[in-house]
Amino acid sequence: MGGKKTLLASGALVGLCAILLTYLGNPANMGFCIACFIRDIAGSLGLHRAEAVQYIRPEIIGIVCGACMMALVKGDFSPRGGSSPVLRFVLGFGVMVGALVFLGCPLRMVLRLAGGDVNALVGLVGFVAGILAGVVFLKKGFSLGRSYRQNKGEGLGLPIANVLLLVLLLATPSFLFFSAEGPGSLHAPLLVSLIAGLAVGAAAQRTRLCMVGGIRDVVLFRDWTLLSGFLAIFVVTLIGNAALGNFHLSLADQPVAHTDGLWNFLGLAAVGLGSVLLGGCPLRQLILTGEGNTDSAMAVLGMLVGAACCHNFGLASSTAGATPAGGIACVAALAVMVIIALCNMPRKA
Fold this sequence. Notes:
By secondary structure, the protein is mainly alpha-helical. The protein has one domain. It has 15 helices and two strands. It has a two-stranded antiparallel ribbon. The protein is globular and about 55 Å long.
């Protein structure tokens, strides 16, 4: 795995891909968003019927498959699982609830900041608060238990499912749902999106790119190495937005965002806490899934189901702000995460 220079290069690549994808059609400040893109895939598969957010996002397919191919080439593919899979599913569900209350994952938070969205700064404070709470649990011995080596077929399950999803998109799109308007209707060309996803997946696999891990390492070890990759994403995207005239510093009228500070804070607090308990942010969960980690695959499936439920039951925010049901679900997600953490502490003799 690379050092700080490699992480900076990896972050710069993600930033460049994000700028390119937005320029070619992705929603503004959404060159990449793991939560939003998984939500769009859930909609395209008919798991929810919110017509504005339905599209098979090739970026997600590319990230998982790019990480998988790189892991196979470099000998890092190591199928493992069995570490509290149901709890990981629940945590993934909760992370998605928080992300859709905020309207974005940690990666999109960085891209929103680089676009001048001050609301994302409030989210960042909440995200750090959630991570700090998670670090407290880690210091007290929190663990979801050990994982066990599994056969290669088990580890390849979700990467193969992503390949089949791409085949479905190319061969029989009539079986899928696609947005005619709204964020789901805005996307870069399929091939460009897929290649960008493959590049980001491969780069992130080699560098362990993870914002949650980066902030955790700063707090625990005063090590800025892992976080430097996300700092590079911010700087490159900021420069790109300024050059293209896409930087607009404000609270109001930001694309696919709302100004409800409390829920921007608590939404990403849930994402931060849940991601620490899972061992990585949503991007990192996709990368680990590509490496054959079936525990991370369960977290990703939890996010998929969580996205569907958020739109089926009115939990997801809109540009008008968080819904009452979404606020209740976000607080409930935080409470469940704390209960899971407390129940998985070392038992006193």
